[in-house]
Amino acid sequence: MKCAICRNGETSAGRISVLLENGETTLVFKNVPAQICENCGEEYLTSATNNDLLKEAKEAVARGVDFEMLRYAA
Ligand SMILES: [Zn+2]
After folding, report:
1. What is the pLDDT of residue 73?
2. Residue 74 banded pLDDT, cuts 50, 70, 90
3. Cα of 9 from ligand 1 centre, angstroms
């Protein structure tokens, strides 16, 4: 797809790390599938992926996790 930020680049599929902070909880998700702009490097997650991350984050907050590194399993 065309990048919405720079309007110049095309995005291509790749894997990124995503940092989520929620109150006292910090989570790092590795290996998250995303579309990445070849021009400016902007990263796009699908809403399904985004929902998965938020769900995991909510569970981690409920468990009282301070810091956790997770490998994203699609
Ligand atoms: Zn771009």
Report:
1. 82
2. low
3. 5
Q: Distance from the CA of 34 to the center of ligand 1, in angstroms?
A: 13
Write down the pTM of the prediction: 0.86
Q: Tell me how far the alpha carbon of residue 74 lies from the centroid of ligand 1, in angstroms.
A: 25
Report the pLDDT averaged over residues 66-74: 91
CATH of domain 11-71: 3.10.20
Phi-psi region of 23 (alpha: psi -120 to 50; beta: other; left: phi over 0): left
Task: Give the number of other Cβ atoms within 10 Å of residue 10's Cβ.
Answer: 11
Taking the centre of ligand 1 as the mean of its atom positions, its distance from the CA of residue 62, in whole angstroms, is 36
Whole-angstrom Cα distance, residue 72 to residue 31? 6
